[in-house]
Automatic annotation (TrEMBL):
A GO molecular function held by the record: peptidoglycan binding
Species per Swiss-Prot/TrEMBL record: uncultured Thiotrichaceae bacterium
One Gene Ontology cellular component: cell outer membrane
Signal sequence coordinates: 1-20
Keyword Protease: no
Name of the protein: Endolytic peptidoglycan transglycosylase RlpA
Keywords, sorted A to Z: Signal
Record keyword Transmembrane present: no
Chain ranges of the SPOR domain: 185-265
């Protein structure tokens, strides 16, 4: 089983505060299904506008500067070469030659805002652009559209392809949860499930890969300096209703992940 076909990720650089209980809140976006379909392997050659691009066999140390452009409406919702749906709220992007998947740090060089994202698609077709990003990524980079001046840096492939913990390869589907009535909705509150905070980034990636591989939704790593140290938090969220939190907590426990806490942002 190719581990690349089990990943389901969303990444961002945000920090959390405060702990509390959870009222019922609204969440109406169904999550992506993670499948063990072994035919979902990206072709070695990507062709666009009469040009051919060969996929890199090893992206270790890759860095590049260029422009990011947004997916258009017709591209959102399509399936990527590794059989993942391109979601407008996903923290993902397309690149012409990086291995799929590859995790990169992308930085808006005009305002220095950064986010960690997953390269899971091929593109952009326009050779003048370096990457193609979702609206969610653009938003975290501080822009709404247009050409974004960016730099990208590949994160360690060891952390994303050889996790320390075992991978569950059976098909996993996260079902949409019931939407509460307007009388119980409280859109002002967001909740996250914290799975660990690590000084060693590789340990954070190991935990991230573990929860992503079993199909848990909205997995992210957030990094922040605390004094001289850089700490890396692995979390799930945001979530907006009690039923959704309980559903995820049960899945964590069923997969042996019992060391977590729920916090209110």
């Amino acid at each position: 089983m190719n581990i690349r076909n089990t990943f389901l990720v969303l990444l961002s650089l945000i920090w959390l505060t405060a702990c509390s209980g959870l009222p019922g809140l609204t969440e109406n976006k169904p999550e992506i299904t993670s499948s063990d379909n072994t035919s979902c392997t990206a072709p070695a050659i990507y062709q666009a506008q009469g040009k051919s691009y060969s996929a890199l066999k090893n992206a270790t140390g890759y860095r590049a500067n260029g422009y990011a452009v947004l997916y258009d409406d017709k591209q959102l919702g399509k399936s990527s070469p590794i059989c993942e749906t391109i979601d407008l709220e996903g923290f993902t992007a397309a690149h012409r030659t990086l291995p799929l998947p590859t995790f990169v740090k992308i930085t808006n060089t005009s305002n220095k805002k950064s986010v960690v994202i997953k390269i899971n698609d091929r593109g952009p077709a326009n050779p003048s652009a370096l990457v193609q990003v979702t609206p969610a990524v653009a938003n975290l980079l501080g822009v709404n559209g247009g050409r974004i001046p960016v730099s990208i840096e590949v994160l360690s492939e060891r952390n994303t392809r050889n996790p320390a913990e075992p991978i569950n390869t059976k098909k996993t589907t996260v079902k949409p949860l019931p939407i509460p009535s307007k009388s119980t909705a409280n859109i002002g509150d967001r909740y996250y499930i914290i799975l660990g905070t690590f000084a060693d980034q590789s340990q954070a990636f190991d935990k991230f890969v573990r929860v992503s591989s079993i199909g848990l939704p909205k997995a992210t790593i957030e990094s922040r300096k605390k004094g001289a140290a850089l700490l890396h938090m692995v979390r799930l969220g945001p979530f907006y209703q009690q039923d959704e939190i309980d559903h995820i907590k049960d899945r964590l426990k069923n997969d042996g992940l019992v060391d977590f806490k729920v916090v209110k942002n």
